[in-house]
Batch of 2 targets.
Target 1
Amino acid sequence: MADAVHTIADIARLAGVSKSTVSRALNGSPLIGAETRERIQAIAAEHRFQLNAPARNLSRKQSNAVAFVTYAYKKGLVADGFLLEVMSGVSSGLADEGYDLLVVHVDPEDTDWARLYLESGRADGFILMQATCTERHIQALRALGAPFSLWGGPPGAHGYCSVTGDSFTGGRLATEHLLARGCERIAFLGGFEVEREVGERYAGYQAALAAAGRPLEAGLVVYGDYSPALAATRIRELLEREPDLDGVFVNSDVMALAVMDALRGEGRRVPDDVAVVGYDDVAAAQYSNPPLTTISQNGPLAGRLLAQSLVQTIRTGVVSSHAIPAELVVRSSA
Amino acid sequence: MADAVHTIADIARLAGVSKSTVSRALNGSPLIGAETRERIQAIAAEHRFQLNAPARNLSRKQSNAVAFVTYAYKKGLVADGFLLEVMSGVSSGLADEGYDLLVVHVDPEDTDWARLYLESGRADGFILMQATCTERHIQALRALGAPFSLWGGPPGAHGYCSVTGDSFTGGRLATEHLLARGCERIAFLGGFEVEREVGERYAGYQAALAAAGRPLEAGLVVYGDYSPALAATRIRELLEREPDLDGVFVNSDVMALAVMDALRGEGRRVPDDVAVVGYDDVAAAQYSNPPLTTISQNGPLAGRLLAQSLVQTIRTGVVSSHAIPAELVVRSSA
DNA sequence: TCCGTTCGTGCAACCGGTTGCATCCCGATA
DNA sequence: TATCGGGATGCAACCGGTTGCACGAACGGA
């Protein structure tokens, strides 16, 4: 039994060539003759040889890894299945490009983590989701000149990649659906008012109403913070002010579930008295009572795009923006 | 302005010492005089110096990273919030020990990934969850002699760390609660029958019935595969066979949500006709209809323990097992 | 005063790849 | 046949840390 093969020097000895030739052959360099290259690759494969990542990263001065950054966990807030879906897409997108995925939970107040990861050579770039990062994080990354891509960022962003749902269409589809089922007074319960996505969903809501020749009533538009508790409060306040409300477009499923709960608590039937459309199509949406009609976004696809565009930025400096389609999933709540 | 400080050689120059002294000082080696060490650390801090991770990993022949391994994503199956909670705990536990967290999605059929990560020096150990890995994966890891820790594995496992919920107590608490609210005929809907956790929950169920002097009826015990669809099927079959069923302990919330749905579909009220207790306390449990009474396990805690025990194994070879408490969360479904 | 410790530090090799440059061999051209 | 060009390969330096060992100084004891 031959000794274990652990380094390119071992392969070099076996093949009767030099380290450099092995290195080039394994990296598919055109400098190496086709015949030699194939022979070396065959030997490497036979011994199931793996390049040593730290050594390669040291030489190349890059880590071949990307950090997926989220807040330190808070119960009920980021436990969103959508994050998992996106992460899964990120993971496979990165794997296809030969990058590893690092998951980092940072403190919302801390802005130094990016420099740490970059300067220590542990990550070449970052992926964030707007829902779990602050504007300060984004500013810090831009100041560093760090490559990153962001879910939910503005489409024409400067200096970084963004992937986002087509929130305008989402808002329009949701509202059109409520109109189509005959709702007369349709409320809008948004997430944080300052978020661009929320603004676009609102624009979609507005557009659908306008297209149907309905008035836009400012009193029917309220905002929350994505927490179920506040969503429930908002819907109760709204109900008191506007008792003849008969439909509501809620900006997230987690809020929508709480809203349906609150509506029931107030004696309204869903969807008979008040129809509810959510957003995100979280796993729980299909088991809620009633199953939630919602807007679905393809999380894994979003993740793939985040990964691909980030890798492109790392390699070529090119930044890009993408919008993925929003789709209406009709269940029973509207 | 001095040139940028990027390597220990720069620090060495600034401090008027050698590279080795800097390296030792920054690693807190007792070989270096306290005074020198502090001076060097001060200089490093002043320049916000970061050691280069690949170089260090290359020298030390370890990666200071751990891979959290899950299946390639499948909609609705692993989208469990519990996984996210555990991961969050793993992340902070590893961060405390100076390890990075790598997330790897593997193909269920592939058993070679561990060797790849180990031999390429990208990970020093692995963390898996039984729900998202196969027995083959575990066998492959053991055959490799790779350090790993497993959520949901057998407590006295050989060769690896395990962290698990106290499933016996969980099963007992759930069943006792159903008994306490007056249920007479309590069914058990398990996950995969072969899983140890499922067996323990069943044992807890059994023990609670025995303690109450109730008979154990084999016809009330059925198993699913954690999918909502099969759970719904099982409960309908059960209902047909045992129409006077008035309580059911379901092995996961996702199944429990589907079960409640199916029960309603069959015209039974929850909890009035049939009381339901779930397991896991997923985020959706509190917004379901009715809100689900369930067994909660502290995911972040589990994650921390997985991380800590794995790091201990990597450093010292010691393997350990932990069980975290199960807690009953009473809502409205039972 | 001389020697053996002990303590603190530096030297240089090493970890396992990558890569600029020199070298060599070959056929093609003059 | 001598020369030139270019493709294929090897040499050796380098990436930025870590660490075994040697070395020098200060100290205590005999």
Target 2
Amino acid sequence: MKNAIRQSELFTKTRKEIPADEVSKNAELLIRGGFIHKEMAGVYSFLPLGLRVLKKIENIIREEMDAIGGTEMKTAVLQNKEIWEKSGRWSDEVVDTWFKTKLKSGGETGLSFTNEEAYSNILKQYVNSYKDLPVYPYDFKEIFRNETRSKSGIMRGREFYWKALYSFSRNEKEHNEFYEKIKTAYQNIFRRAGIGHLTYVTFASGGSFSKFSHEFQTLTSAGEDTIYLDENSGVAVNKEVYTDEVLADLKLEKDKLVEKRAVEVGNIFSLGAKFSVPFDLKYKDESGEEKPVIMGSYGIGLGRLMGTVVETLSDDSGIIWPESIAPFSVHLLSLGESGAVAKEADDVFKLLSEAGMETLYDDRPGISAGEKFADADLLGMPYRAVISERSMKEGGVELKKRTEEKGKIVSKEELLKALSGKD
RNA sequence: CGGGGUAUAGUGUAAUGGUAGCACGAGUCCUUUGGGAGGAUUUAGUCUCGGUUCAAAUCCGAGUACCCCGACCA
């Protein structure tokens, strides 16, 4: 991606009006800012600004997955019916969110709604011995679910972009060690994305192979889930497993828990041998004995994470992107029609882009100061740098954080230093 | 999948069954330039199909889309 662009090159525009068919704050602000475009209910295109955010989030997740031994790959979107019949999940009776279609040859195919089958089938080809394990493949991928009710803007769609990692371990002990590692990695991800302080590891239903799964729940009124949070320990329990037995198990006291709305930004699951058995995914251990591979699945919806950041970190004027995932670090505004200002702003833009600063440059002529300020607030870059007759008279550039009321005048050198010294 | 609601210009909104209007946007011109400026002028619309009626954006039916509540959510 280009690190610096002129706003006049950007085809998207901001809007003052809220789309009538969007109620959620995330969709409202993201559409008004020109980050996303709604195609239909639960389906959004990512415009240049929105894509930059998504890529930033993707990179953070990639770094954290790679750091714990993840290996990135890409599974196909079109899925093979026979493979899904092995796990019993091809049938519409079992899974009602499939998007399926006919092949010209007469067969059927479906669009991925999850990846367990694909990974189990692929790994079957390569895993034979204890020497081949453990492995942690993952991918970023478009996922399709024929939801009967999409809602909440980009928080719950029919098509969405996720990261899914699958762990293939030799035994429970090895699995559990990795499970703890990924739990930490997930906390790193949400912290780096700016919502760590609002995100809690939450005990949730574990399905058939373990007592619990763990969800990463971010507190927001826009959330679909209800959790019970112990604010002292930071431990939370999803309403779906909120029973006296579970509370006793987790040593939580009912009267110390607070009920909160939250959105599930990540979920990690122990799968045991649920998929290795139907896919005959096993290995020979040191003594030549065959054993099933122990699996786990670990997902994060990137669009949902982006939507959650908007929901939790915006104010009345617009979005407040954390520096780590902002489309650009700094929004440079040129105010007024003076040729000297325009030239100075061009120089500063050149300076910033050559220094590698991610810069969005509002060089649009004939746009009033008020409108440029309003746009800068809505788009939410962490820093705003203003060049105007006033700033030049006062000796340079007015630099302001998105979160600050007032800026301060700095020289070009100080500007560069302030921006590169950030983080 | 159950329930409720909505559908008018690119966007947001008006219009007792009787001339579809306003604002924003976009185009042209003039003025303006530190918190979504002003004037002039132009542009563009009743979701689809059927019905009732002299006459339908408006009433009726069907379809479709979208929104909300609930269910569902590996």
